[in-house]
Write a structure and sequence with these properties.
The chain is an alpha/beta fold. It has helices at residues 12-23, 45-55, 70-73, 81-90, 126-135, 155-162, 200-207, 214-219, 279-295, 312-323; strands at 28-31, 36-41, 64-66, 95-100, 117-121, 139-140, 168-169, 182-185, 191-194, 239-241, 251-255, 270-272, 300-303. Bound molecules: threonylcarbamoyladenylate (TXA) and magnesium ion.
Length: 327
Amino acid sequence: MMLDPTTARLTAQDAETAAQTLRRGGLVAFPTETVYGLGADAANADAVARLYAAKGRPSFNPLIAHVADLAAARKIARFDDVSLRLADAFWPGPLTLVLPKAADCPVCELATAGLDSVALRVPAHPVAQSLLRAFGGPVVAPSANRSGHVSPTTAAHVAADLDGRIDAIVDGGPVMVGVESTIVGCLGSPVLLRPGGVPRDAIEHMLGRALIAPTAVADAGNAPVAPGMLASHYAPHARVRLGATHVEAGEALLAFGSALPPGAEAAIAVRNLSPRGDLAEAATHLFGALRELDAVGAGAIAVMPIPPQGLGEAINDRLRRAAAPRA
Ligand code: TXA
Ligand code: MG
């Protein structure tokens, strides 16, 4: 299914076709504003099992349930004052909340890995919105890539990883944000489980308090750490060298800003995340650039330092995972 990326809307008929595929237990990849997701009916354990298999994902790693609005979310999980304020401020948008399950939570146990909590998100992308409204129930959707690989920011990335393993790809053009949603655990004091598309400072400013680090929660002996935050993740095939202030022989360069480091002229290939040094622009280019530099066959990718503030926290988090020793 191809869409005009400049308008990126689903016709009612296309939305209904995709929703039918989900109702039959099929797997449908679709754009959200963060990255492309691979959707399945959250209430259908067989569909969720096929989803894990298509991704090659360890099934102890729970999924995010996507719904069209807060009213739908409240049928799935219990909100308190803090989580309601977060939802009000940032939904629809790139924020996921981990919440206590509601008594009759429709999301199957396989999708939540048997936890008492459930991760929920209301995406802002108009295509995701149309699909969720047409389907009418929660849709679990991990990033639409093979497990451990770089997240997809275009329909072509999805096809490269999953063609032949899934039922449909809804093409809504390139995504707007480029890194996954920020995940905040709301099972007590709010915890930053994964930095992402909503910068930490925006959340802390709205709440008027600091988000706790997951390690602080784990140290206190009462998990949850986002179980999916495996050290090596988002990994290209090439070795990734961070904080590069020069380029070595045989390396490709992932640049940021206008001043390139010594050796850049001899790099095997160069991608600049944002020549003008804009972190939002850099986020939109991150995963595509990693895929492209991987495709030129460089043994290693040298990555220039990226400032840590704002979206830089999520960008640096993904780069550290890309650079981590492989399992
Ligand atoms: O932007 C996004 O969030 C994208 C788009 C498609 O919505 N989705 C995405 O899903 O990044 P995925 O499956 O790649 O990451 C979901 C993360 C995992 O790290 C998982 O461990 C965590 O959410 N998670 C899910 N349920 C959880 C729970 N009950 N408690 C703690 N972490 C949870
Ligand atoms: Mg992922």
